[in-house]
Amino acid sequence: MADLKKIMEQLSELTVLEAAELVKLLEEEWGVSAAAPVAVAAVAAAATEPVEEKTEFDVVLKSAGPKKIQVIKVIRQLTSLGLADSKELAETADSKIMEAVGKEAAEDAKAKLEEAGGVVELA
Prior knowledge:
This protein has six helices and three strands; from the N terminus they run H-H-H-E-H-H-E-H-E. With 123 residues, it is an alpha+beta fold. The chain folds into two domains: 4-48, no CATH class; 57-122, CATH 3.30.1390.10. Strands 2-1-3 form a three-stranded antiparallel beta sheet, covered by helices on one side.
């Protein structure tokens, strides 16, 4: 049997171009493709990992836009804050209007704020 440690040491000394050439030669000699097993392994790994869906969102006002007064009114409706606090949120970039709310509530708030002219992001 070949000395695997010696082969590993020789392979680690190859440049990227030499390694690519070696892969090409091995593919031609043995009639295989080095890319296929990697792609299959990646798909298999992705299929086995459960995807956790986000359940809580923050509604972030990036900008009040040109209709600041309408946006302030919507902020007051959504949060029950006073006029001064709502105005401060509207004038401050990246203000969290709502924190840790459900998906439906966040999307509803986003739609209302955007309809009023605000630029909103769900985080």
